[in-house]
Amino acid sequence: MHLVMASPNRYIQEKDILKQAGEHIAPLGKKALLVGDNITLSVVRENLSQSLKESGIYFKEEIFGGEVTKKEGHRIAELAKTEGYDVIIGIGGGKAIDTAKAASAFGGFPLVTIPTIASNCAAWTPLSVFYNEDGVFEEYIVFQNSPALVLVDTRVIAESPVRYFNAGIADTVVKWYEARASAANREKNVPTQTALNIARECAETLFEYGVEASQDVKLRKPTKAVEKTTDCIIALSGMVGGLGSDNCRIAAAHAVHNGFTVLEETHHLFHGEKVAYGTLVQLFLENEEQEFYKLMEFLTKLEQPITLKQMGLENVSEDSLSKVAEASCAAEESIHNMPFKVTPDMVFDAIKKVDEIGNEYLLKSVCKN
Predict the structure, then answer these.
(1) Structure pTM?
(2) Closest Cα to residue 160, out of 114, 113, 220?
(3) Across the chain, what does the average pLDDT equal?
């Protein structure tokens, strides 16, 4: 397929945009179901509720189940149908928004996404990542429709927990490495090349502003660095897949993330934190030594895991790591988007080697200080 593009109908990023949210949502419907968790809904409640009321929009909050499952998506879709809602609004991070996207697709409702953290590009994309109820990865589903509207309030993002923001940076810088790998043996048509250029721009911007933006989020300041970094995490990151389609998909880094989900000990980690380690594994597999060490230094500044111990796997058995490697190379996994064949043995060795190099790097950093 030469060209498939997917993007939200409207994307608005602005400080305090939630105070005008109602006027942007009103054309989509007058009865809105707000999907999130107790924390994320409380973050937006004051400004969003007032704005919806001013625009004459009736709304109800619905707490989602905490995990992105098809069952939960269908439950919320059925609720929205039964109670006669016009539009679904997903509020929060990746899991809440992916659940809202699933409900929107299963029920045929227009979707608004309001990210309260910049931890990934979920607010932009037309897909959900599904897990089982135990938190083990199942599959990705790309839906027919993208969000109708995305509202990003950079004040909300700047006041969010910095750990989510840092994980978002880790999940976004990988776009360049994975897009480059998945496009390596494919036709570089104009959309693909544009997507690659955007992915590279994302990485370069994050390397330049990411650490500064992280420090600003710690201070709860919606600075230019935070704006630029949020642009990359949500909008530009989403554009890579939207323009590049199957030519610029995820590759080894996300497959290794999915592999790690088979170990319950990793379930406390954020998506981007597991992807961070997975990116190092991918660069090791590619023998990209210079970029490997550049990324390792960057991730360390952002307090992202570069060793198994930092992932809570200090005493992990080789049998468990073998399971991770096997899951990473499952037939349906994105690791097969790499431009060369990758086997479970290669992944197992790379995971171990990254851990060894990471420990050496941290030891040298301590000695320098």
Answers:
(1) 0.89
(2) 220
(3) 94
